[in-house]
Amino acid sequence: MQKTPAADDPGTHNEKSISLSTSSGDTASKGEVLNPHGSEHDQLRLLRDRLAAQSGVVTHLGRTLLAAGASAYLVKFSMARLANAIGIESQHSQVTFSEIVTSVYAHGTFRTESHEQRAFGTNAARLDDLRLFVNSLKPGLLVEEARERIDEIINRKPPYPAVINCLASGIACAGFCFLNRGGLVECSVVGVAALCGQILRRSMIKRRANHFGVWMLCGLLASLIYMGVSQTLLLTGLVSVGHPQGIISAVLFLVPGFPLVTAILDLVRMDFLAGISRMTYVLMLVISAGISVWIIATLFQWHIDPPEAFPVTGISLYLLQFICSLVASFGFAVLFSIRPKIAFYASLVAGFVNVGRLFLAAQGMLPQAAVGLAALTIGIVAHFISRLSGFRFSRTSLTVPAVVIMIPGVPLYAAITHLSNGDIPQATAALIQVFFVVLSIGVGLAISRMLTDPGWRIDRDTAQPRILEKTGWNDGARRFQMR
């Protein structure tokens, strides 16, 4: 077993890179030719070098996908297809949230590599590019060509500059605040607080700070800014009453929506190692941000529960709900680095579906039932949008921004605060609501996937590339490609 240390950048690898043609099992690498009259030791060395190069590019793809926030199934499937394309006979992998262990078999030998992935984040644009790369793979690909194409995708500029990313955070949280029954004052102050919090988060993440500390400090900053601005407006007479309820909306940009949805999908696919570890990461981030809200709310004795009713009624309410749902969804899509065209479609779907969800809940439907129906609708609509685009738009990029605005962030953070204050009944009620709503989102998305994708109805072994060669290379088997 050979263990390769992980690099800080998933685009680097310390293995020798050898370009080889894999259309024939005995074709040697560029610059190195197997000599039938050479010594057995030299031939064995060349075979091992060849397998090291093949294994290296496969794990390079897997680590890049994992660093961009891919699910375990996407990582395994993509690694298996690339392994098949470059001539590996069999490939097995074990993927968790932070580690990849893979074994490849070819040329009468095998190689096992273990990598630790410490770059945690979300880059949906990179995931879409890598998905298109994987779907375009054909047998006979050179190792060097595969590595160059992956590195070219890694080096592409992000779809949004830093300024747009930070502004999107403020706008998304402001829209989210209205959906949580906030008024004009709350939404405006929330936008400023979330903007400042996102600036701090980007700065700290760039310096590779510990995520749990980052979430706690950003939550403290956003909460303090919201509290400070609100109190200043009250003291100066610009508002007649305080507005403490919006403090939780100010930290909703810290809700890890993308990894939460991915964790749910991992669990549905029975990738338990990845799903449980990713869900643990999500819970730790939520607790870190929740502690910040609790500290500020306790110090200043603020009431954190949202208002009972919306500030407007009638047609104006539904129109504002549509606009705020669209704005919040698009803002979170920008945070996830989803390209503008896909983000627009996702936010449009979110606008219509979320208004329908809120209407059904207002008419007496159980919130979890309304959320489950909304998630199912979003998943099915996302499939047809992806299909109309020739599957250039991934369903994950279309569904996550649309469903993330349905995640009950306010009850979640409120529950942490109530629990810290010893208000067990209120905390329990809020946690139960959060649990069933999140569960409903997962069920809705899972049902939509199984209805529209044979790869989710049929449990296929992604560890055997030759199986993929028989079922996934020709156009007639597009249904087995990653969508």
Keywords:
three-stranded antiparallel sheet, 483 residues, mainly alpha
- Structural class by secondary-structure content: mainly alpha
Q: Compute the separation of the termini in Å.
A: 34 Å
Write the element-wise H/E pattern from the N-terminal end onward.
Answer: HHEEEHHHHHHHHHHHHHHH
Radius of gyration: 24 Å
The largest beta-sheet arranges its strands as 1-2-3
Could you list the spans in which at least 5 consecutive residues all have pLDDT below 50?
1-34, 464-480
Number of domains: 2
Mean of all residue-level pLDDT scores: 83
Give the overall shape, derived from the CA principal axes. elongated
Q: Count every beta strand, where a strand is a DSSP E run of 2 or more residues.
A: 3
Give the biggest beta sheet: 3 strands, antiparallel
- Count of helical segments? 17
Estimate what percentage of residues fall within beta strands.
under 5%
Question: How much helical structure, as a percent, in the residues?
Answer: 55-70%
Give a topology summary.
Layout: H1 40-67, H2 72-85, E1 90-95, E2 99-106, E3 109-116, H3 124-135, H4 143-154, H5 162-179, H6 184-206, H7 211-235, H8 257-268, H9 272-299, H10 315-335, H11 340-362, H12 367-388, H13 395-404, H14 409-420, H15 424-452, H16 454-457, H17 465-472
Antiparallel strand pairs: 1-2, 2-3
Helix pairs in contact: 1-2, 1-4, 2-17, 3-4, 5-6, 5-10, 6-7, 7-9, 8-9, 8-15, 9-14, 10-11, 10-13, 11-12, 11-13, 12-13, 12-15, 14-15
